[in-house]
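Please, structure for the following, as tokens.
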Amino acid sequence: MTNRPGRRAVLVGGLLAAGVLAGGAVAGRAAFGRRGTGGTRGGPAVGPDDGGLVGPLRGIVGNGRTPLLRTTFDDDAGWATVAAALEGRSRDGGWGSQEESLVDAVVDRRYENLDVVRLAGAWPDDLLGYVIVADDRTMAEVRAAASTNTVSVLYVDLWSERGSTFRIAVDQVPDVAMNLFIANMDFFEFADAAGPDGVFRGFPSDPDE
């Protein structure tokens, strides 16, 4: 992916992120949810809510949370594994818990075989946020987890670069969701740090630290 100019990535995680949560912003940048009066962000032209895709997600995103969409319905066990991991993920005793998770699982047949471009085109300008997609690749990785050691989901930007995506390892989702929620980092910083296979597994260690 193309590298873009910007600040050096500093990932907020663990209890530090939890402490900032109540404030809802970092360094004067608004956290996501409903759009305020200041500024505009780019994206494709917004159409009507095609097929009612946005309605069930509005309350979740409007409250600063990230929907996890089930888009394939042929593996109940695989979906249950991913949903349980992301709704209640805890990292090293940090902020993640069932109550504090920023991810809400959504099971609705209208999202079966979801076209994220269609969702992005229907997304309204007054709603800022992201969705996570558990797709066919996710389910295949769950079934092969013992050998591949990576289960990934698709992160979709419905804010600054509407419709942009990257894949992310499940264990990285809590910190990324938190950093996007408090606007500490931009979506492209994670997308640009994805590996050759397109999956974000974290930032490389800084040899100077």
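The chain has one domain: 14-31+45-116+124-159+171-191. The beta strands are 25-26, 29-30, 33-34, 66-70, 103-106, 127-134, 152-158, 165-169, 199-200.
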